[in-house]
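Aim 2 progress update. The chain analyzed this quarter is reproduced below.
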Amino acid sequence: MSDSSPIAHVRFDANNKPTEHWLDDHLRDAAQLAAGYAQAFQSSDWAQIAGLWHDLGKYSTEFQGYIKSKTGYEVNAHIEVSNKINHSAIKIP
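Predicted C-alpha cells:
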C-alpha cells in the first residue's frame, strides 16, 4: 500500500520496526472473522456487515493524523518513538 492508504494499526517489533495493518485489510479480516463466529446462530451476513463497518471512523483525516502523531509513525519516515493507541476511547466529533 502507499503512504496515502489509511492505517488501522501500527505495531512495532522489539527493534522498533513498524508493521502496518492497513485499514482495508483490517476491515475485511474483521468481517471474515465475525461472519465465521456468527455461523453458529445463522447470522453470518449481519456479522460480516458489522465487521466491515466497525472501524469506518478510522478513514477520517482526523483519526489518521491522530494515529500517526501518537505513534510517531509516517510511511517512509525514520521511527523514533512507539506508543500503544487505545483507539476505542477516541471520540471524533
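The chain has one domain: 8-89. The first strand starts at residue 7 and ends at 12. These observations will guide the mutagenesis experiments scheduled for the next reporting period.
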